[in-house]
Design a protein that fits this description.
The longest helix is centred in the C-terminal third of the chain and has 34 residues, at 166-199. This protein is an alpha+beta fold. It has a five-stranded antiparallel beta sheet with strand order 1-2-3-4-5. A hairpin with a 2-residue loop joins strand 3 (141-150) and strand 4. The protein starts with a helix and ends with a helix. The chain has helices spanning 2-11, 26-43, 47-58, 64-72, 81-106, 166-199, and strands at residues 112-115, 126-134, 141-150, 153-161, 164-165.
């Protein structure tokens, strides 16, 4: 399970782009930027360098508020605005650290990404872009990006690797933590993990 999660988080980098246009189709966005980002992660395993790429190229294309809201589930509406912001910030930091680490450990020169066409009608505001991550000698990994149209373009709100949803995976552990220690308990738990990651 841990390995699958690491693969899932690492795979999120394939969707990076420096600019997103509301007129750019989701699959075209993925296709046009894969080669650029892939070339970067093939040349370095340095976590600091990868983190910089993540901050500049990836984060603008993810809707972390939506991801956090979905991961927290029904408890989200019980959180105050301040708690919601703290949850979003802590979850964002956790994801960045986790998939930067995964990238530094798993990226290889043999990897390539096949982006499947994802026709979008003018009225569509939600789409799934399907990709296959290929590597010599290994079974291809199916990765789906669930994207929603927001002001300014398309943003990712969930990533699914081999039927394992990032949002769903965290929802269970978040719910357990909230039941045990409340919203503030979950925030403290996430912040503690982020502190340990930063020190490690």
């Amino acid at each position: 399970m841990i390995k699958k999660i690491a693969t899932l988080l690492g795979a999120m980098l394939w969707l990076a782009a420096s600019a997103v246009s509301a007129q750019t189709a989701p699959d075209a966005l993925v296709k046009s930027t894969v080669d650029e980002v892939l070339s970067v992660i093939k040349t370095t395993k340095d976590k600091r360098a990868l983190n910089e790429v993540v901050e500049k190229k990836v984060l603008p294309n993810f809707d972390f508020q939506a991801m956090t809201r979905l991961a927290v589930g029904r408890h989200w509406r019980d959180a105050s605005p301040a708690q919601q912001k703290s949850l979003e910030n802590a979850f964002r930091s956790l994801l960045v650290t986790t998939y930067t680490t995964a990238l530094s450990q798993s990226s290889t020169a043999e990897q390539s990404v096949e982006v499947r066409a994802a026709p979008v009608k003018p009225a569509d505001d939600d789409v799934t872009v399907r990709t296959l991550v290929k590597e010599s000698g290994r079974k291809p990994i199916a990765i789906d990006y669930r994207m929603a149209k927001v002001s300014g373009g398309w943003k990712v709100y969930d990533v699914v690797v081999e039927n394992l949803s990032l949002v769903t995976n965290y929802r269970g552990s978040f719910s357990t933590e909230i039941t045990k220690a409340g919203i503030d308990g979950l925030i403290k738990s996430l912040e503690a993990k982020n502190k340990r990651n930063a020190e490690g």
